[in-house]
Structure of Protein affecting phage T7 exclusion by the F plasmid:
Amino acid sequence: MAMRLFLVYAVVESAVLVALATTIGFGWTMLLVAATFLVGLALAGSQVRRHLRRLRSGLTAAEAHGAVTDSALVALGTVLVVIPGLASSVIGALLLLLPPTRAAARPLLTAIAARRVPLIVGVGTAGSAAAAARSAYSQRRGDYIDGEVIDVVDNPAEDVPRREPPRLPE
């Protein structure tokens, strides 16, 4: 899978560079690649600093989900900007580092993560939302077994049987 992705990346980047070099010339293409990389790095740096300030300021439970998703998108956008190539830099900078486009990409990332991460239903979830999540999970992954976890606290002093001291034969 990784080799296929790398092959797709190499083909797309090569096609973009060849098309751009034939259209505007080799020198301008290299200048555009360098400028895109530098602008992307500046944008990535400002977004990373912004998210670090946001995470340090403290978040409520409702804001935490959006902050984690935004941080993942900023990290992915930064990686795409740092990877050499014009297409990856443009995708990283425009789609994942700018806040308006990141808001559009957030539901897609949430859907991908929900499909990859196993469903964990906490104690606080109840009602039709939990039932809908269980049914969606069971349709996707097979049977759902409803259960209850009981914490057991062992007391070693009570579990060990008392032994009498050994006796000498009489």
About this structure: DSSP finds seven helices and no strands in the chain. The chain has two domains: 2-116, 119-147.
